[in-house]
Amino acid sequence: MGTLRGSSNFARSRMAPKLARALFSLLLILLWVNLAAADGDLAFLQRAGKVRVAVYGDTPPFSFVDQNGRHQGFVVNLGRQIAQDILGSPDAAEFVVVSQAERIAALQSGRADIVLANLTVTPERLRLVEFAYPYLKTTIGVVSRGAQIITDAAALENQTLVVVEGGTAESFFRGRYPKVRLLKFPDNAEAINAFMNGSGVGLAHDSALLSAWIKNNPGYVKGIDSVGDVGAVAPAVKLGNLELSRWLSDEIADLTKDNFFMRAYQETLLPVYGPNVDPRTVIFSFDELRMP
After folding, report:
1. Which residues touch 21 (CB under 8 Å, ≥6 apart)?
2. What is the mean pLDDT of the segment spanning 63-79?
């Protein structure tokens, strides 16, 4: 009996370290899963004390950096309001400047918590990010030179059209007008500069943004005001972050009811568009809000 009792004690003494290591490994795995799931959710943002918002730095009046190095524009106002409502201060918004091709990657890499860089909802993007309720309507327009105005998308076939890589204009013309030769650039500034320097017969981009651009650049005409369907621009968060996307949908709904977007329009967009543009063609009413 004494020998059996000693063998049992010896077995337990050998099993104890193994069991402890197994439990420790399990705890590490559970901790990692919990942290991964929490990355970017509301509790994470509150612990961090900031909201990292991906925006453009060169698309006035939507989002740009002014001469004092401060972010300004329609979506910047939205980013500061989101920070106010999550963390109690508009200054808790930390703006991360991205190119058009970097927007989704900024979420996937953890560089940004929310993208407000004019990301249009598309079937492809629905597989990559979580969208909230939309806040802007968008259509594709085409600007051409005053001496050679393009008024029909079909006239672009076998011609070179400047687009921003990864944007809705690129995917639209690639799918609907495959004979159009697309000259792609990684960001807005490079695409616009290339077009102004003689590349392509036209520049395709968000129609509202082009309206703002031609106002400050005489000699160019938006001959095609709208091609394709009206799209929806919505906040996007990392795929799987349903808590933050649902919170953002509630936020967009509340801000729409409170006329926040109309006030932001009057402050940032009206001075550029003028009184002839109906704001209802740019911003959503509460009754129009739908999940992507």
Report:
1. none
2. 96
Secondary structure (3-state) at 166: coil
Q: What are phi and psi of 149, to 5 degrees?
A: -80, 130
What is the pLDDT, as a whole number, of residue 132? 97
Write down the pTM of the prediction.
Answer: 0.77
What CA–CA distance (Å, rounded) separates 265 from 4?
Answer: 84
> pLDDT tens digits, residue range 215-239?
889 999 999 999 988 999 999 999 9
Can you tell me the distance from the alpha carbon of 261 to that of 274, in angstroms, rounded to the nearest whole number?
Answer: 17
How many of the other CB atoms lie within 10 Å of CB of 101? 15
With b meaning 16 or more CB within 10 Å and e meaning fewer, what string describes 179-213?
ebebebbebbebbbebbeeeebbbbbbbbbbbbbb
Work out the mean pLDDT of the chain and round it to a whole number.
88
At 274 the pLDDT is: 84
Q: Please check the confidence at residue 161 and state whether its pLDDT lies above 80.
A: yes
**Domains, the chain:** 42-135+234-288 (3.40.190.10), 139-230 (3.40.190.10)
Q: Phi, psi at residue 162, to the nearest 5°?
A: -85, 130
Residue 233 CB neighbours (<10 A): 24
| Structure-token pair, residue 202 | 């036209």
Distances (CA, A) of 216 to 61, 99, 220: 12, 22, 10
